[in-house]
Amino acid sequence: MCRIFAGQDPASYEYVTQSLRLNGQCTSIRLERAFWETLGEIAGAEGISIGQFISKLHTEVLDLHGEVRNFTSLLRCACLIHLRRDAAAQNDATRIAAA
């Protein structure tokens, strides 16, 4: 089983730093390439850029919680939620098709 994880392309977990604006302030975010790709999927589904999605998410977290403690971890968890929802939707579609 570990070969599935160990055999992945090292480029997928290579850090990539992107500069963007959050609420008018320039900042940099450093994430693994695989997370940037997933954020791109999420943003694309919303019809906005990655920067716009991240800025919107940051604003919503501030509105809900008043602060953002570990924003890069929040982004990684957002990717995980997205991937889990996609997997659940695919499982539902497979069940419906099989019925």
What does it look like?
The chain has 99 residues and is an alpha+beta fold. It is 64% helix and 16% strand. The chain contains 4 helices and 2 strands. The protein has a two-stranded antiparallel sheet. A hairpin with a 2-residue loop joins strand 1 (15-22) and strand 2. Helix 2 (33-46) crosses helix 3 (50-65) and helix 2 (33-46) crosses helix 4 (71-98). The longest helix is centred in the C-terminal third of the chain and has 28 residues, at 71-98.
Brief descriptors of the model:
two-stranded antiparallel sheet; alpha+beta; 64% helix; 99 residues; 4 helices; Ribbon-helix-helix fold
E-strand count: 2
Mean pLDDT, to the nearest integer, reads 92
Strand order of the largest sheet: 1-2
- CATH superfamily descriptor: protein bp1543
Helicity, as a percent range: 55-70%
Tally of individual helices? 4
Largest sheet: 2 strands, antiparallel
Structural class: alpha+beta
Q: Give the distance, in angstroms, between the N- and C-terminal Cα atoms.
A: 31 Å
From the alpha carbons, calculate the radius of gyration and give it in angstroms. 16 Å
Beta content: 15-25%
Q: Order of SSEs, N→C? A: HEEHHH
What's the domain count?
A: 1
**What is the global morphology?**
globular
